[in-house]
Amino acid sequence: MPKREPQEPIPPSLLPPWRSDARVALQEQARAFARDVVMPIADELDPQKAEMPRSLIDGMAAKGWFGITIPEAHGGLGLGVFEYCLVSEELARAWLSVGSILARGQGLGTQTLDDERRRTLLRKSARGEWIGAIALSEPTAGSDLAGVETRAVREGDEWVLTGTKRWAGFALAADFVEVLARTREPREGEPRSAGLEPFLVVKQPGTFPAGMTGHAIDKIGYHGFLTWQLELDGVRVPEGDRLTGLYGDEGADADSGGFASVQRGLNIARVHTAARAVGVARAALEDTQTYLQEREQFGHPIAEFQALRFALADMAAEVAQARAYWCQVAHLLDAGEPAESESAQVKLVATEMAVRVTNQAMQLHGGNGYTTERRVERYWRDARLTTIFEGTSEIQRRIVSDRLLGR
């Protein structure tokens, strides 16, 4: 029989009620950038465990994507969590870390006590000139952020930070590191998180400030930027760099404690992670769709074998389901709903789906999938991480079950 030409995968487009001309145009722009710019760079640098070039970051900045959720009055696009996740899904389809770097803008590191400085930093963030790292977790405090032990001690007009932080991605290359530290012990009757505040450690990209050192953690995936363990030994932070919140949280109060704002930011981060996981799973699905039509066995394209066709159909259904869910939860967040349980659910559903789909993609590629000659092994490695960062699957299950049954 004649050899069939492989068909181009057809990525899903937005459907009602989420569809609008502006969103479709943004999606198409991000999809083209991911395909034409990000993918070739990822194919070259990921096997080397290398960092993404600054030119790639500048390309995203030129499109305004570091300011998607920043108000237009401050130079941003003035859009919502939905558009932020929409762009991130497309970029993650090419390289997970590029879908992640957008989170280092979006007003991160701008919630200073001085309003004029905050406005200046918001404009820089929107332009991609104020890209940071987040240092929340510690060797003994990851899922349990209330267990943070890094100390912030007041000395005159400064705070002195001492402790160890782990999993601070992009820390060396960043313009700042946002550090969660304890300013005091909880008082009787207060939650364990009382006394935790975020601090802004300003630095020059490519260097650590006085009192901070670090070593890069050797990861099996999620390449594109380095992830650091940081040692803080007397890092000095001016009182003006004690922050009122994270993720551009306008509603935070300086005296109410920064930990609540961290929790609110995590809801957005979890939906963002769901969208990134969908992007990685989509990549595996689309590459497998092409592979099944290219690969021949027993004189036929393996796309003609019913078992493989059905496996691909199951993959497509799972990706579409998770994608529809992140759209729904992003919409809820943009509508002002806290959506804590929904954010945990979509993070759980989408990331576990990504692991299953990329694993199945490896299987359908056969021996070719277990080589670095195909991108599917990259998707498999990166998908595995999505079930861990921004709260493990077990933590998401705890959040959801606590809302259903009480703590």
UniProtKB/TrEMBL annotation:
Keywords: FAD, Flavoprotein, Oxidoreductase. Pfam families: Acyl-CoA_dh_1, Acyl-CoA_dh_M, Acyl-CoA_dh_N. Residues 133-235 form the Acyl-CoA oxidase/dehydrogenase middle domain. The keyword Flavoprotein applies. Its cofactor is FAD. Residues 23-129 form the Acyl-CoA dehydrogenase/oxidase N-terminal domain. Residues 257-405 form the Acyl-CoA dehydrogenase/oxidase C-terminal domain. Gene3D superfamilies: Acyl-CoA dehydrogenase/oxidase, N-terminal domain (1.10.540.10), Butyryl-CoA Dehydrogenase, subunit A, domain 2 (2.40.110.10), Butyryl-CoA Dehydrogenase, subunit A, domain 3 (1.20.140.10). Belongs to the acyl-CoA dehydrogenase family. This is (2S)-methylsuccinyl-CoA dehydrogenase. It comes from Methylobacterium iners. The lineage of its organism: Bacteria, Pseudomonadati, Pseudomonadota, Alphaproteobacteria, Hyphomicrobiales. The gene is mcd_1.
